[in-house]
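Something for you to look into today, if you have time. What I am after is a single protein written out in full by you. I want to see for myself how the chain folds. Could you add the entry underneath, on a fresh line?
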Amino acid sequence: MKFAVVCFTERGALICRRLYTYFNSRGVECVTRVPTRFLKEEWKKDGMSGQAEELSWWTGRQFEEKNAVIFVGAVGIAVRAIAPWVKDKLSDPPVVAVDEAGRFCVPLLSGHVGGANELALEIADELGAAAVVTTATDVNGLFAADLFAAGNGLEITDRREAKEISARILEGEPVGFFSDFQVDQIPRGCEETWHRHNIWVTVRTGLTEKGGQRDWPCGILRDSRPGEGCTETSESAGILRLVPKAVVLGLGCRRGVPPELLRIQVKTVLSEAGIDWRGVKRIASIDLKKDEPAILTLGAEEGINLQFYTAEELKKVKGTFFESPFVENTVGIGNVCERAACGEGGRLIFGKTAGNGVTVAAALEEIPPLKSSCGFGRKD
């Protein structure tokens, strides 16, 4: 993510300069939009840019590129500039407004998921300003499921339930918490015990049994009843499942396979294996496929990183894999998808599954311990 800083006055340009220098010192790519008459020559030499396009279109481009946007100026200007581009709290980039005197930092958009609250606090520390965080859970120092998810690299599966969780927590109702993965401690305000008519947060991947593998959870459930595990809930149970992005797909395909056919085949295989698509962290294959349109399209449209290995690198991957003499004669290695899936040390979930000219395998990479502190805003 790049940072984009925009200002409108001479005084604001000085704040813009400070932020540009600060972000660059941290190795963070930063772009600026400074009124030309306030842009000094030495600033230009450092890479700062002037006012090159109309504000609304400049803002829209930052949204499209998913850049964090920092407005140095009035909140009203920022609101009008972002209004045409706001879509969804889970996809909008973080937006922060800083007054031109550098006294207040106000997160305006994507406070939790996008990290605007955290960014506002960081900017405030740098400028010696006050961060004005207004999200209810932060103000009250309460657990926030979306903040917990964002801080631990988890995907929210149900936006309605996420809102319901926050509302219930603000009302002081008990929240259940369950995770298949190690958590440093149960988040404050949550419980491990089952209650009738409570909220339940479960961290689950949704992986069903296949090839001897067990189901792996992560999430939040409300209105549950006592039972063994998260499966025994009442009809009115509300579950917010948080999915760890830890699945690596190993792909192989015939040359020129249609992108839509590849997409359908991959998602069908994952569905049959009980793997939530939102848990896919990376797509991996052999370097001979680095220009394959179908794979490139799938990665770009789904926003998933691609990784390509040479045949020699794949040969070094440890494990027991199904080897095909035909594949080895063709690409120099007897199995591409399984080895690519396990390329960074992941555990194979299911092996080579072929159909429609596409081969798919999936591996689960290690998930670091979850941090319960990520679910809380700063309460001074």
Notes: The chain is about 30% helix and 25% strand. The radius of gyration is 24 Å. The first helix runs from residue 10 to 25. Residues 71 and 97 are 5 Å apart (CA to CA).
